[in-house]
Amino acid sequence: MKKLYQPILIISLLTFTLQLNAQDPRFSQFYASPYTLNPALTGIFNGQCRTTVNYRDQWNSVLTSVPFRTYAVSGEYRRALASDDYVAFGIGALHDDVGTARYQQNKAHLAFSFLKQLSGGRNRTEHYLSAGAQVGFGQNSIDWSRLWFSRQYDANTEQPDLGAGNGETFGAGNTPLYPDFNAGLLWYMIFDNGGFFYLGGSAHHLTEPKITFMQTNNSVLYRRWSGQIGGQLPVSEVLSILPAVQVMKQGPSFETDLGFNVRYSNNDLNELALRAGAFTRIGNRLNKGIQADAVTIVTMLEMNRFMVGLSYDLTVSSLKRANNARGAFEVSLTYVHPEHRRSKVTCPKF
């Protein structure tokens, strides 16, 4: 039965990709990918510099040679102002590689943010507001030569004849470079007991740039709206719960990720902390209603300046019959370089 379901899954994935070719890739560990989540998160860390790397490998269990792979990397630098607020600058890039034809999305951005302390002080809850923007460019590409069509199928050999004409008129292998603009806001509050709460929203691809391989096609990269809410709830001196919710809407697609991590920390000067948790992803089925897509199991290790996250998506939708519930593997790595002097601005640790 597995061999029967494999082509069904591949056809389903191809149909999904063709109908939603103007969508963004995303990470299950969204809270560990500030570059792709919200421009206002630029500089939201306790330190001088931050480097983040994310990698996602999806459906490798079925598409062994051509799984969906997504890479993202970003770097940020923040500088305190005389008013105890700060500005931050960043740079980030994303690469997404999909399927046999190597459909690729590439994006790069420069980022800027400004964080303002709204209120706070000694023995008072601190409130902050961050506004951020990203400006950059993107380009998509596809390798038409890796595809074959029904006209090339040889019934005698029961194999495709790649030397035969396919009768297709292809466009360019690359789309033109397109400008890309993103913006976001983030408000958060820090409590005396180490807890925090945040609420944010962002808009990506504000100009809805045209992305097409055919001059007669007017496909655009849909504007993506997203909202984030979460925090840290201390349970004891060493234990806390970090709930998080992300909601996204892009063109015809809607998705929600919600769940929590449990964090254990030794509260030492050289802090060592361990997180473990689970998240559920819910989305729409091409205008056929809402369904649960996957459950993500995640574990993260914090070692002073470093944080490493590992997660795995278990498929819970109808696709689980084809891939035996195996979905995506993901890893994140974050490094924060400390400041030379103690900052008066406190940031949450997502």
Descriptive report:
- A hairpin with a 4-residue loop joins strand 10 and strand 11.
- It contains three helices and 16 strands.
- The strands form two sheets. It has a 14-stranded antiparallel beta barrel with strand order 1-2-3-4-5-8-9-10-11-12-13-14-15-16.
- Helix content is 7%, strand content 53%.
- The radius of gyration is 22 Å and the shape is globular.
- It has a single domain, classed as monomeric porin ompg (Porin, Beta Barrel).
- The longest helix is centred in the N-terminal third of the chain and has 18 residues, at 2-19.
- It is mainly beta and 350 residues long.
In short:
The chain has helices spanning 2-19, 34-37, 320-323; strands at residues 49-58, 68-80, 86-98, 103-121, 124-141, 153-154, 159-160, 178-190, 196-204, 224-234, 239-250, 253-265, 272-284, 290-303, 306-315, 326-337. By secondary structure, the protein is mainly beta. It has a single domain (2-337), classed as Porin.
Spell out the key features of this protein.
about 350 residues, mainly beta, Porin, 14-stranded antiparallel beta barrel, two-stranded antiparallel sheet, about 5% helix, disordered N terminus
β-strand amount: over 45%
Q: Write the CATH architecture name.
A: Beta Barrel
Strand order of the largest sheet: 1-2-3-4-5-8-9-10-11-12-13-14-15-16
Main sheet attributes: strand count, strand direction, barrel closure: 14 strands, antiparallel, barrel
Measured distance between first and last alpha carbons = 43 Å
Per DSSP, the total helix count is 3
Overall shape: it is globular
Domains, number: 1
Provide mean pLDDT, rounded: 84
The helix-strand sequence is HHEEEEEEEEEEEEEEEHE
Protein structure class: mainly beta
